[in-house]
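Open question from group meeting: does this chain pack into something compact, or does most of it stay loose? Before anyone orders reagents, we agreed to write out a predicted structure and look at it together. Recording both the input and the output here so the notebook holds the full record.
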Amino acid sequence: MIKPIIKDVLFLNQKSEPATENDKYVVEDLLDTLKANKERCVGMAANMIGVNKRIIVFNAGFMDMIMINPIIIKKSGTYETEEGCLSLSGIRKTTRYHNIEVEFLDVNFKKQRQKYFGEVAQIIQHEIDHCDGILI
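Structure tokens returned:
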């Protein structure tokens, strides 16, 4: 189901709770909402649709990816950039890492560990920041 985008900064500043298998329905809502906003959005965290759980989805160019309870475990190569966000107006400066390694659960709640770089790494960092209650 396509959900409205939350813009309430007080809600978005809350740290998200770990997701459980009972939260699987959130994945479909996130994917539907991401697809509905694909012209202006490449990633989304559950709190952006009003669900305070650690779930993110993003477009990796060739497909939409799902991460449940993602945690960045390694990062290297800082750089300065500017980002926008559906939940906020305007563009803001931020610091990101070129290379990251992430532990997460896939949609079947199987543990995964993957390395990402470049634009995909930047998108993941932005969405994990949402899970941590950090807004750019």
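Observations to bring back to the group:
Strands lie at 43-45, 55-59, 64-85, 88-105, 111-117.
The longest helix spans residues 118-131.
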